[in-house]
Amino acid sequence: MSRLPSRLESSGLTRRGLCPGDRRGVYSVITDQGRDLHSQARPTYDGALRAALDAAAADGHLGPLVASLRS
């Protein structure tokens, strides 16, 4: 997990933020550039998630779970 935050930061998509209540804590904070990229990727992500949930809903065992997730 430690490589992903570093790569996001080096790409300018996040920055480090210190935890005010605990100096040992570090947050990964999304930047404006990161928000822009997220907005661009969102329709593709939503479509892929919708397709996966539709496929799972057709399964008799998973159908009720998918219905509860969608409500």
Q: Which characteristics define this entry?
A:
single chain; 71 residues; alpha+beta; two-stranded antiparallel ribbon; 3 helices
Write the layout of secondary structure elements.
Layout: H1 3-10, E1 14-18, E2 26-30, H2 32-57, H3 63-70
Antiparallel strand pairs: 1-2
The proportion of residues forming helix, as a percent range, comes to 55-70%
Task: Specify Rg, calculated over alpha carbons.
Answer: 18 Å
Strand arrangement within the widest β-sheet reads 1-2
Main sheet properties:
2 strands, antiparallel
Distance between the termini: 32 Å
**What is the beta-strand fraction?**
5-15%
Mean pLDDT: 93
Q: Using the alpha-carbon principal axes, give the shape.
A: elongated
Low-confidence stretches: none
Return the string of H and E elements. HEEHH
Structural class: alpha+beta
Q: How does this structure look, described?
A:
There is one protein chain. The protein has 71 residues and is an alpha+beta fold. It has helices at 3-10, 32-57, 63-70; strands spanning 14-18, 26-30. It has a two-stranded antiparallel sheet with strand order 1-2. Helix 2 runs antiparallel to helix 3. The radius of gyration is 18 Å and the shape is elongated. The chain starts with a helix and ends with a helix. The mean pLDDT is 93.
